[in-house]
Amino acid sequence: MTPTAAQPTCPLPILRTVEELRAQVAAWRDAGLTVALVPTMGALHEGHLGLVRRARERADRVIATVFVNPTQFAPHEDFDRYPRDEAGDAAKLASAGCHVLYTPGVRTMYPEGFATAISVGGPAEGLCGTFRPQMFGGVALVVTKLFLQALPDVAVFGEKDYQQLMVIRRFTRDLDIPVRVEGLPTVREADGLAMSSRNAYLGTGERARAPELYRALTAAAEALAQGGEADGALTAARSRIAEAGFGTIDYIELRDAETLEPVTRVTRPARLLAAAWMGKARLIDNVPVIPAG
Ligand code: AMP
User: Does residue 194 line the site of ligand 1, with CB under 6 A?
Assistant: First the structure.
């Protein structure tokens, strides 16, 4: 069997230190293999496994990372109760064809005396950047560290977190990090709800109402694609989301698909993005808006 045809070993090897990770990547490089990285916070679902499958198409070897990153959570947020399931995650990753799980501890990523931050602007401004001001700096820090630890050829992220994907593309370019960043369309449940580890926070009734966020976005996107003006379409979507039983709507906004700058009418590819609370769960979703004709 040639190295490129090798099947992932089962059970999945689990690496916990930068040294182990670098040794593994060096061995693959010596064998002439390419490497893909799939960063996650665990509690894996089909959306994450979609990233792994895409990564397998793009490289010979796939590393998934699981790290619930404290620097992207504010003190009042759900860092402590974020779902964690290492054994379940490892089994799912092995079944999706992942080769290695890298799951460093907090002290490995942020040793005593750690004193560095990354400041992000541009696509990090507004939207989730307003409601979770610490988040994208924390994401930039951890993703930069993971990129420099693994030095993969390519890394795959989900469009589910569209603003995050644009922030990652931006700082990867700005910092000359030699990693290709690839986005995967959002993987959804049969009723349209975007898969998310945080869907576990939804009660049964809430779960039944949650897909209305996606439906409202889709309806508004259709109106906007036909040349409709943003105010009317967004007001209609807001009402529909509120009527479905969502509480606070953090935002629902139309942005340029590439720069994420605000847009009032769609003349080039745009993105409609929203964040809203259903009970204790803050759900985010977004859809493309492609001008008709
Ligand atoms: P998380 O574990 O939620 O931090 O997400 C890790 C990666 O999985 C990010 O790149 C997310 O955008 C991606 N992801 C999460 N949910 C989905 C989904 N439903 N479809 C596609 N990608 C997703």
Answer: yes
What is the position in ligand 1's atom list of the atom closest to the CA of 51?
22
pLDDT digits (tens, 9 = 90+) for 73-129: 999 999 999 999 999 999 999 999 999 999 999 999 999 999 999 999 999 999 999
Q: Is the CB of 138 under 6 A from ligand 1?
A: no
The number of beta carbons lying within 10 Å of the beta carbon of residue 152 is 25
Distance 123 CA to ligand 1 centre (A): 18
161 lines ligand 1 (CB under 6 A): yes
How would you class 242 by CB atoms within 10 Å of its CB: exposed for 0-12, middle for 13-18, buried for 19 or more?
middle
Global pTM reads 0.96
Label residue 111 exposed, middle or buried (CB < 10 Å: 0-12, 13-18, 19+): exposed
Q: What's the pLDDT band for 10 if we cut at 50, 70, 90? A: low
Nearest atom within ligand 1 for CA of residue 43: 2
Pick the CATH number of 197-289 from 3.40.50.10950, 1.25.40.340, 2.40.50.140, 3.30.1300.10: 3.30.1300.10
